Structures are given as structure tokens and as C-alpha cells.
UniProtKB/TrEMBL annotation:
Keywords: Methyltransferase, Nucleus, Ribosome biogenesis, RNA-binding, S-adenosyl-L-methionine, Transferase. It comes from Aulographum hederae CBS 113979. InterPro entries: MeTrfase_RsmB-F_NOP2_cat (IPR049560), MeTrfase_RsmB-F_NOP2_dom (IPR001678), Nop2p (IPR011023), RCMT (IPR023267), RCMT_NOP2 (IPR023273), RsmB/NOL1/NOP2-like_CS (IPR018314), SAM-dependent_MTases_sf (IPR029063). This is Nucleolar protein 2. GO terms for molecular function: RNA binding; rRNA (cytosine-C5-)-methyltransferase activity. PANTHER family: 28S RRNA (CYTOSINE(4447)-C(5))-METHYLTRANSFERASE-RELATED, NOP2 YEAST -RELATED NOL1/NOP2/FMU SUN DOMAIN-CONTAINING.
Length: 738
């Protein structure tokens, strides 16, 4: 670009204008009034709009221009158009347009060269008097004069932009430049914005159409090879020993899921949904490492897209969560203490008042002073849910049938504020030791730990206000913690575990007191997501115990349980149960159901443990022996009775041993009571007859020598004792006399 006027270099005086040419042009203006609209249309072909309000403006402009002095230019200054001709720049109006749009004007630098010869302030007042302007057409009459001037100056650019016409028509050397710019800006806003909106809409519509076509073509072309043909499956048995291409499997899984979501549009011709599903399950087993049986069972729980999200979430660990022990501290104080140790944490959610989620820790959470002092316990967020559903009250009797390692039990104790009584039972003795350790560390004082089979509990003790049963399960909800579940669970496990869970749930129901004023509730929970361990077990309990019903868990989030699944229909009240998934709630997979016991268990109800009747006689035999009264044994002398003389000997020996520990000689004490020592001799004689003589008869058959030795020893001991007693008596008399 050349050096502009803004750089300080100004142009010289332009050549004088030929006034005869200007006069000829003025005379011809009224005659070309009808042809002007054609040029106007050519100049504004893009807009395609022209109002009739401009016509009177053109006539007025023509008349007013003819009234001016013929061939005379106002103030004797050359026109602006001549300047553009002299400079040899046909695009000078465009340059001025850019300057006006940017808010930069150089009128002050060269006011004499920027004026329009035909636009005098007085003429403008007469020309625009009584005319209202609006939109882009408001400046149409002024732009036509400019077009005609361009024709007069032999300009090759007959088609001019509408914006250029507006600016040149309003321009005047005597008019305030800033006011002119404001008028132009206000006039351009409506028209330009409308043009841009229409242009953007057209472009977006075209782009959307192209995008849809590309996506459709890409999907159709990409989904065709997803289903492997039968022949290829048979031939592909050889190279299956090679490691699979994980990236290829991942892309194929996502593409197959997309096809199953919109099968009608994206599926290949001749392919069924079963083929795509079979291929997807095969890829899931290869990519995530599941057994074919478990992958299909979990896949049937969700839609294809959600199933993919579930499998993906099981590959990521759940957040580390700790539970505040409110028996020793508060959550705010604990959070402050751990933050000071470099632990990054925040509340686990609005649904819990004691949970804290740990993001990063510079110290081991299981060895901090707060942990050792029992201020918190490491516990998964999903384990809060059964206790929150149970909602134990103070001064109640609560049973936790499977309590180890103690997270739920200690939470119950905290909610009860160490009041009432909790029976924490676990059938595994080794796990019960860990339960005892957590109970002591967290300061729980209202808990009794026992080691029974949960099936025996209605007979061991009953009448509880509330019972919590966190039943043993397959662990399909905690695959992120235990990846072995992917392969070690078989069909037998899903037959054996539900059978045990059904019996345990019936035992829990029978252990509750239906007449409890504050309770009568049972909570059943598992860390599994399969229907066989959850809805089917609950349905079995409703069928076998007609005195219970499902009630709301009181949990603020979670999905409703299934009321129908793969052709199976369940009770309508199962929508009160709650399911939790790792991909939707960011907690371990969990199931929670809450029962309310309405009345006593019927006598003809199915027993909770059908095998108990067979083992009854075996259990009662040792109990009969243990409960036999001691007095009855003495009277009947069934076990040979007791030997009183032998018992007296052992009692006397114990008495003497106790006296020796106190520093008292038992024989001297006996002589103090009886000076002649007859009592002591009789006791010794009896002991020798019972104990001393029997071994003497067995040793070489010489009892006489033994008795003599014992006699000599006794005589010497007696003499010593008598001497000591005499000295003691003498010392006592001397003290009294003094």
C-alpha cells in the first residue's frame, strides 16, 4: 500500500474541473430519471430490495440540483469525484467506506479534498426537508447522484456497493463529520444485521445438511464389517492365540453399540440384531476380560449404550471415602485436621452428613493419629446406604446379622449415640476379631459381639426392634475392587447364593418383634446388581411371609428396582427398592430393600432353615447333659459321688499354702490355738494315712521306715514351734508390762 494521508503526506491541489461538463450533466438529470432505477437495481443486486419512497427523493434531488448555478461549484472548490479521477483510483469510495466503518476519518487533514461539490448544506436542507429515512433505502437518492457522477467521469465500475452510496450521498465538506458518521452507522445497523443473519442461517443449514450426509455415509460404510461372518469365525480359530488388538476392539465396540441404538438405519442388510449382540458380547469378553456367562448376564441388565458405560466404569476405582465417627468428633473438625496434614478432601455429597471424599493424601490414611484415635473409618460410600435406610433410634435393640468388619455396626452405634443394645454377629470367627478391633477403636460401648450362624438367630435370641442383613453375595457390584469376579463366578454360584440369601432373609424377618413401638423393620442389602440376588430374593420373602410388606427406604437418590425382567413379573411394591450403579452414581453397585413386619409369623409358614429339623436331636443330646442339676447327681450318685475326706485334705492344703504366702507358719498358728498340738497331730495323721501310706506301700514294700522318718521330722518341727511360741508370748508380756 502507498503512503496514506494519515502518515502526514498530503496530496497536491487537484486539476481544475471542467464546469461545462458539470453543467451538461445537470441538464440531463431530469431526462434520465426513468433509467436511474435500472442502475440502482444493478448496484444493489445483492439486496434485491428497493422501496418506492426513494422516487420522490430523486425528483427533488434533481430539481434542487438544477436550481443551483449552472456550471458553478459551491465555494469554488473542486468536486470529490475529480479527485478520484486525478489520483487514478477507481476504488476511492471503497477506501472511504472502510475508514468510516472503523470509525477513522481524515476529513480534518484534507477537508478541501473530501467535500462533494454538489452537496451544499443549504441544498441538503431543501432536498431532505420533510422526508423520513429508514433502513438501507434511506440514502438511495444520494447514492444515485454519485452513480451518475461516476458515469460522467468515465468510471468503469458501473456497479457499486450500496454501503458506498450511502456514505458518499451523505457527505459534505461543511457538515459535521462526526454527525455524518453517526447517521451512517444508525442506518447501516438494521440492514447489515439482517444480511448477516440471513447469510449465517443459509451457511448453517448447508453445513448441517452436509454433516448429516457425511455421518450417514460414514456410519453405513463403517458398520458393514462389524459382524464377522460364520466362515471367518471358523477360520479365525487358529490366530486366536495372538494378543487382540485393543484399539480395534474398542472402536468396534463403540460402532456396534451405535448400530444397536439405531438398528433400522445403520444395520447392514441381511444382518439381525442377534448377530450384532453376539459380536458385541464377544468383543466385551476379549476387551474387558469377562467370562461369557457373566458378560451376558450383566449386559442384559441395561441398554447397549448403558451396558458399555457399566463395563467401562468397572475398570476405574471408586473414590476413597471415610466416615466420620460422631462418637468422638465432628466432620468439620476432622476435615480441618486432615487438611492440615496435606489431605485434599470434600464432603461426599448432600445425602450424607458424615462422609468425606479423599482426592489426594500425602500421608497414609490408615496410620494418621486421627485414625488411630478412632475419629474416622475407611468405608465405601455405598455402605452408608443400608444403615441410613435402617434409621436406628436410640434405646432400641438392633441385630446386625453379618457385621464384620464393623463399618455398618459402628455407624449404627453412632446413630444410636451408644444407647440401647446392638448384637453384632458374624459366622466367621477370624472376621469377628477385626470387628472387635474396630468396635474398641471407635469407642462403641453398646455392642455385643457373637459368633453364630445367622440361620440360628431366631432360636438364639429374638425380639429385635430392627435387623440389618447385608447378605453374602457374588460381588458383581464391586468388580472395580475385586477383578477376579469377572472369571470365577459360574452358574452354580448364582444358584447357591440366592438360596442362602432367601433363608437368611426369612431368619431376619422372624427375629423382629412386630409389636415394637418404634421399629419392626428389616433392611436387606447386597453388593450385587443381578436380579437373581435382589428382586427374586425379595419376591420370595413376600411370598413366604405374608406378614411383611415393602416400605420406602428413605434414600433420596437411586434407581427403582425392577418390577419386570426378561419375562418375569414381580410385585408392584418392588419399585420401593433402590439400585445403585458405578456408572451413574459413582458408588459401588448396591441394592437396598426395606421391610415392615405387620404381625407375627404364621405357624404354618415355611421355616427359615428347613434343615434344622434334621439336626435337632444331635444338638439336644449334649444340652441335656450340660443342664442336669448338680444336686440330682449327688442324690442318685450316677457319677460315683464325692469323697469328703479327700476334699478336706485338698482344702487344708490350700489353706496352708495361702498362709505360707502371707509369711505365717500354719503349724505354729495351729499350736497357738491348742498348746498340746493335738489338733495338728490329728490333721497330719489323716494326711499321712490318705497320701503318705499309699505310696509307701508301693515303694519296695517298706512302709515302716518311712513312718519313722516322718515321726522324727515331726518331733523336731514341734520342738521348734514350741520354742518360737514361747518366745512370742514372753515378748508380748514384756510389752504389756512396759
Amino acid at each position: 500500500m502507498g503512503v496514506g494521508r494519515r502518515m502526514g503526506k498530503k496530496q497536491g491541489v487537484p486539476a481544475p474541473l471542467d464546469e461545462s461538463a458539470v453543467t451538461r450533466k445537470r441538464k440531463n438529470l431530469p431526462e434520465k430519471e426513468e433509467e436511474a432505477p435500472k442502475k440502482r437495481r444493478r448496484g444493489r443486486g445483492k439486496e434485491g430490495k428497493k422501496t418506492e419512497a426513494v422516487k420522490p427523493l430523486k425528483a427533488t434531488a434533481a430539481v434542487s440540483s438544477s436550481k443551483q448555478g449552472k456550471g458553478k461549484v459551491p465555494n469554488g472548490k473542486p468536486a470529490k469525484v475529480e479527485k478520484s479521477k486525478v489520483n487514478g483510483s477507481k476504488n476511492a469510495p471503497k477506501a472511504s467506506l472502510l475508514e468510516d466503518e472503523d470509525g477513522i476519518s481524515d476529513v480534518e487533514d484534507d477537508a478541501s479534498n473530501d467535500g462533494d461539490a454538489i452537496d451544499d448544506p443549504d441544498v441538503l436542507e431543501d432536498r431532505f426537508d420533510g422526508i423520513k429515512f429508514g433502513g438501507l433505502d434511506a440514502l438511495g437518492s444520494a447514492s444515485e447522484d454519485e452513480e451518475e457522477d461516476d458515469d460522467f467521469l468515465d468510471s468503469a465500475d458501473d456497479v457499486m456497493d450500496s454501503e458506498e452510496e450511502k456514505i458518499t450521498g451523505m457527505w459534505s465538506e461543511d457538515e459535521d463529520d462526526e454527525d455524518a458518521e453517526e447517521k451512517l452507522t444508525a442506518a447501516n445497523i438494521a440492514g447489515l444485521s439482517q444480511q448477516l443473519d440471513e447469510q449465517y442461517e443459509d451457511e448453517e443449514a448447508e453445513a448441517d445438511a452436509e454433516r448429516e450426509d457425511e455421518i450417514l455415509q460414514t456410519n453405513i460404510a463403517g458398520d458393514r464389517p462389524k459382524v464377522v461372518e460364520d466362515d471367518e469365525d471358523e477360520e479365525g480359530g487358529g490366530p486366536s492365540l495372538l494378543a487382540p488388538d485393543l484399539q480395534l476392539l474398542r472402536s468396534r465396540i463403540t460402532d456396534t453399540v451405535r448400530v444397536l441404538e439405531d438398528f433400522a438405519k445403520l444395520a447392514e442388510k441381511g444382518r439381525s440384531r442377534a448377530e450384532y449382540t453376539k459380536q458385541l458380547l464377544k468383543d466385551i469378553c476379549s476387551y474387558y476380560g469377562y467370562s461369557a456367562f457373566l458378560a451376558e448376564k450383566l449386559f442384559n441388565l441395561f441398554h447397549p449404550r448403558e451396558a458399555f458405560e457399566f463395563f467401562e466404569a468397572n475398570e476405574k476405582a471408586r473414590p476413597v471415602v471415610i466416615r466420620t465417627n460422631t462418637l468422638r468428633t465432628h466432620r468439620r473438625e476432622l476435615a480441618q485436621a486432615l487438611s492440615n496434614r496435606g489431605v485434599s478432601l470434600q464432603p461426599v455429597g448432600k445425602w450424607s452428613k458424615v462422609g468425606l471424599q479423599i482426592f489426594e493424601s500425602q500421608v497414609p490414611l490408615g496410620a494418621t493419629p486421627e485414625y488411630l484415635a478412632g475419629h474416622y473409618i475407611l468405608q465405601a460410600a455405598s455402605s452408608f446406604l443400608p444403615v441410613m435406610a435402617l434409621a436406628p433410634q436410640e434405646h432400641e435393640r438392633v441385630l446386625d446379622m453379618a457385621a464384620a468388619p464393623g463399618g455398618k455396626t459402628t455407624y449404627i452405634a453412632a446413630l444410636m449415640k451408644n444407647t440401647g443394645c446392638i448384637f453384632a454377629n458374624d459366622s466367621n470367627k477370624q472376621r469377628a476379631k477385626g470387628l472387635i478391633g474396630n468396635i474398641h477403636r471407635l469407642g462403641v460401648k453398646n455392642t455385643i459381639v457373637c459368633n453364630y450362624s445367622a440361620l440360628e438367630f431366631p432360636k438364639v435370641i429374638g425380639g429385635f426392634d430392627r435387623v440389618l442383613l447385608d447378605a453374602p453375595c457374588s460381588g458383581t457390584g464391586v468388580i472395580a475392587k475385586d477383578a477376579s469376579v469377572k472369571t470365577n463366578k459360574t452358574e452354580k454360584d448364582f444358584l447357591r447364593l440366592p438360596h442362602l440369601q432367601k433363608q437368611l432373609l426369612l431368619s431376619a424377618i422372624d427375629s423382629v418383634d412386630h409389636a415394637s413401638k418404634t421399629g419392626g423393620y428389616i433392611v436387606y442389602s447386597t453388593c450385587s446388581v443381578t436380579v437373581e440376588e435382589n428382586e427374586e430374593v425379595v419376591q420370595y420373602a413376600l411370598n413366604r411371609r405374608t406378614n411383611v410388606k415393602l416400605v420406602s427406604t428413605g434414600l433420596v437418590f437411586g434407581r427403582e428396582g425392577y418390577t419386570s425382567y426378561m419375562g418375569k413379573k414381580f410385585h408392584a411394591s418392588l419399585n420401593e427398592t433402590r439400585r445403585y450403579y458405578p456408572h451413574s452414581h459413582n458408588v459401588d453397585g448396591f441394592f437396598v430393600a426395606k421391610f415392615k413386619k405387620m404381625g407375627p409369623t404364621p405357624k404354618n409358614a415355611v421355616p427359615s432353615n428347613p434343615n434344622a429339623a434334621k439336626t435337632k436331636p444331635k444338638v439336644q443330646e449334649p444340652e441335656v447333659v450340660d443342664r442336669t442339676p448338680v444336686g440330682a447327681e449327688e442324690d442318685e450318685d450316677e457319677f460315683g459321688g464325692f469323697d469328703d475326706e479327700e476334699d478336706e485334705m485338698y482344702i487344708e492344703r490350700g489353706r496352708r499354702a495361702a498362709m505360707r504366702k502371707k509369711g505365717i507358719d500354719p503349724r505354729a498358728a495351729a499350736k497357738g490355738k491348742k498348746d498340746d498340738g493335738e489338733v495338728d497331730g490329728e490333721v497330719d495323721g489323716k494326711s499321712e494315712e490318705k497320701v503318705g501310706k499309699k505310696p509307701d506301700e508301693k515303694v519296695n514294700g517298706k512302709p515302716e521306715g518311712k513312718t519313722e522318718v516322718n515321726g522324727n521330722a515331726k518331733s523336731k518341727a514341734a520342738s521348734k514351734i514350741n520354742g518360737t511360741t514361747k518366745t512370742l508370748k514372753a515378748s508380748k508380756k514384756s510389752k504389756k508390762s512396759s
